Amino acid sequence: MECRVMIFKCLPINEGETQIYARVDEDGLIRLTCTAEYPEFKAWLAEGNTPLPADEEV
Amino acid sequence: MSTVKATNFQNASSATVNMVTDASGNVSFGGTAAMSSSFLRNRIINGDMRIDQRNDGAEVNPAVTSAYYLDRWEAVSTVASKFKIGQNAGAVTPPTGYSNYIGLTSLSAYTVGASESYAVRQIIEGLNISDFAWGTASATTVTLSFWVRSSLTGTFGGSLRNSGATRSYPFTYTISVANTWEQKTVTIAGETSGTWLATNAAGIYLTFSIGTGSTFSGTAGAWAAANYISATGATSVVGTSGATFYITGVQLEVGTVATPFERQIYSNQLAQCQRYYYRATAAGTSRIFGNGYVTTSTVADYTTPFPVTMRDEPSALEQTGTASNYIVVAGSGGVTCSAVPTYLTSTQWGAQYRLTVASGLTTGQAVLCRSATGGTYLGWSAEL
Question: Which of B150, B154, B243, B252 would disulfide-bridge B235, Cβ 3.0–4.6 Å?
């Protein structure tokens, strides 16, 4: 799976909704959003990374 | 080799001629022609490299360790930026009968580390190789054929392996003349050991190496209880700056004979690819992606059906990264998005996603999602 030099951050959600994460690419653009089941996100977590909270600027 | 010359062939018990040959080389059958495997022989999808939903022919420098470029074809790169890849990259004439190929170009004279690999591969879904019966005593022999061209000559390598990376078969082939298309054939005895998934998960990894370290290289022509990606001593394309490696017409089929490449109607081939990846790309402005409804004054949720049932439920949504590419159409007017579309949920047959604007929507309103410019897209992946 893809392993870009990038980070993931949590997106704001409504109560009861599944947490969605945004991938912030090197250039600062968000080109992908996903659930915790997305293989690239899981691989990123497995490397010891932690997604930024929803209200934190990248 | 001797030749039997005859026009009609008829079984002694048949009332009619079974097979007729003519002077033009045609053969007609009186009944059903049955083969040891089906007429849909090729287990490789997009083997002639026609479909490129993600990049539409653009050449890309893979800055990632593993990612898909042409549909169903994944580039593997332990260290980023050692080669670039694209459909018809290099602009050479494909082999006769083909319009497309994958082109890879080395970006440096790189010495591959022992545990590194650089390659292009296709992961075949287990459902499509279940009849191989690999991992059993009934394992069938298969034949791999392909057209290849390189600026280098010598012995090149690749492998077949299982999803658990516990069984692999390194193979070699020789490129005799530089910058010339050559067709290669490799026949591989069926593997009677190991676990080979017959589900919608990964069945077989077919890899063409352009540079593999010693850890992942093994003896060619034999099954091994190892994760081999290539054969020992194979040529490293990434070891020569500017070296090229082009491939097309890839076919993997049951039996010991490489039959002619199995041609597909374009729409069928696209549908096969869309089982694994679907990208809706706007050809211009005001193209509709889906229908939805407004949930708050700033949010609308949409649904887009997939054109074919996907291999699995996608867990991500891809888009251009530019919010202003997407417009919420409510009533007579359009409102430009203030944030990029986001994933909500999906099934194997469709997806939901969310568009956000600064203000101006009315809860409960029916809305459309449309493009503000050509090239705007939404994409979903169920790749292996």
Answer: B154
CA distance B212 to B234: 8
CA distance A56 to chain B (A): 16
Verify whether the Cβ–Cβ distance B316 to A4 is below 8 Å.
Answer: no
- Dump pLDDT digits (tens) for B307-330: 999 999 999 999 999 999 999 999
pLDDT in tens, B194-214: 999 999 999 999 999 999 999
Dihedral sign for Cα atoms in the order B287, B290, B292, B297:
negative
Helix (H) or strand (E) holding B37: none
Which positions in chain A touch B66 (Cβ < 8 Å)? 1-3
- Cross-chain Cβ contact A38/B317 below 8 Å: no
A55 — contact with chain B (CB < 8 Å)? no
CA B190 – CA B133 distance, rounded (Å)? 8
pTM for this one?
0.91
**Whole-number Cα distances in Å, B366 to A20, B53, B292:** 24, 30, 6
pLDDT digits (tens, 9 = 90+) for B63-91: 567 789 999 999 999 998 999 999 999 99
Distance CA B361, CA B145 (A): 57
Task: Please tell me if residue A46 touches chain B, with a CB cutoff of 8 Å.
Answer: no
Residues from chain B that touch A51, judged by Cβ atoms under 8 A, are: none
DSSP per residue, chain A: ----S-EEEEPP--TTSPP-EEEE-TTS-EEEEE-TT-HHHHHHHHTT--PBPTT---
Q: How much of chain A exceeds pLDDT 90, in percent?
A: 69
In angstroms, the CA B18 to CA A37 distance is 56
Q: Stretch B222-248: mean pLDDT, rounded? A: 98
What is the per-residue pLDDT across B22-47, written as a single tens digit (0 to 9) for each? 998 889 988 877 665 556 899 999 99
Sort A53 into a burial class: Cβ within 10 Å, 0-12 / 13-18 / 19+: exposed
Of all helices (H) and strands (E), which one includes residue B268? helix B266-274
The confidence score (pLDDT) of residue B40 equals 81
User: What interface predicted TM-score (ipTM) does this complex get?
Assistant: 0.91
Contact list, B318 vs chain A (CB under 8 Å): 31-32
Q: What does the buried/exposed string (b/e) look like for B67-85 if buried means 16 or more CB atoms within 10 Å of the residue's CB?
A: bbbbbbbbbbbbeeebbbb
